[in-house]
UniProtKB/TrEMBL annotation:
Pfam families: SNase. Residues 38-157 form the TNase-like domain. InterPro entries: SNase_OB-fold_sf, Staphylococal_nuclease_OB-fold. It comes from the Bacteria. Gene3D superfamilies: 2.40.50.90. This is Thermonuclease family protein.
Length: 270
């Protein structure tokens, strides 16, 4: 199992410094009978909250949007909602709402487990990590790795993928959330302080990860020296876009997994 820079490690670090750990917010007030919850996709459903129909999004995960796994995830989420019934509890997550106005929540069943964990463990959703919602990221990453390695659900159907760093292979996946794994060939730092992780010998076309100066302290707090990652196989996740080749910008350490220890990377002609 790859070494994961987890929220648990960060919480330990913050506790050692005297900062309080991230706390769960109060649950949302649901109707006494929440059996009316209806899945819209594998990570979204509708439910009556305070007498009004609400669009609800499961925070921290992303289910397939297409392919046979999309229907499997939708059906499984509906089954989980039906099983939870009146024991379903929703707690606000992250900013509370996404850009489309949907409520962002952690959904918990009567036994204390989350719907997010169930979907990830069955391979019907991948972890979608965000800096403002990392309380459950560590556990979800562990569950995802087990499901991925076993080829469960969407991983086996290849509706969920871990991409290589080949820029040509990544091109069809630009402007979407992606998981990419490969060896860091070199690192660099720009004049404005941003740090680059280069996955090829030509930064103008190869896959690159960047971390802005304002976010680097988060990685330092988690014990990650970004400038010393040359030779390391890493797995990163986030929105991938075009900027001198495919690029992902990381703003928190939970979106970076160290898969293999650093080894010298011999460049061509050297």
């Amino acid at each position: 199992m790859g070494r994961i820079i987890t929220a648990a490690f960060t919480a330990f670090y913050l506790a050692a410094c005297g900062a309080p750990p991230e706390a769960e917010p109060d649950a949302l007030p649901l109707a006494e009978d929440s059996s009316g919850a209806r899945a819209v996709s594998g990570d979204r459903f509708t439910l009556e909250i305070e007498g009004e129909a609400a669009d609800v999004r499961l925070a921290g995960i992303r289910a397939p949007r297409a392919g046979p796994s999309a229907e499997l995830a939708l059906a499984r989420l509906q089954a989980l909602l039906d099983e939870a019934g009146g024991d379903l509890a929703l707690a606000p997550a992250g900013p509370g709402r996404n850009r489309y106005g949907a409520l962002l929540v952690t959904a918990t069943r009567g036994d204390g487990s989350t719907l997010q964990a169930a979907l990830v463990a069955e391979g019907l959703a991948a972890v979608d990590s965000h800096a403002d919602n990392t309380a459950h990221t560590s556990r979800l990453l562990e569950l995802e790795e087990v499901a991925r390695n076993a080829g469960l659900g969407a991983w086996g159907l290849r509706d969920l993928l871990v991409h290589t760093t080949d820029p040509n292979a990544l091109a069809p996946w630009l402007d979407s959330v992606a998981i990419v794994q490969g060896r860091v060939i070199s690192t660099g730092q720009a004049r404005d302080g941003r740090i680059y992780l280069n996955f090829g010998t030509d930064w103008r076309t190869d896959f690159t990860v960047q971390v802005m100066r304002r976010h680097q302290r988060r990685f330092e707090a988690a014990g990650v020296d970004l400038r010393e990652l040359a030779g390391t196989i890493v797995r990163v996740r986030g929105w991938m876009y075009e900027e001198n080749g495919p690029m992902i910008t990381l703003d928190h350490p939970e979106a970076l997994e160290l898969v293999d220890a650093p080894e010298p990377a011999r460049l061509p002609g050297r």
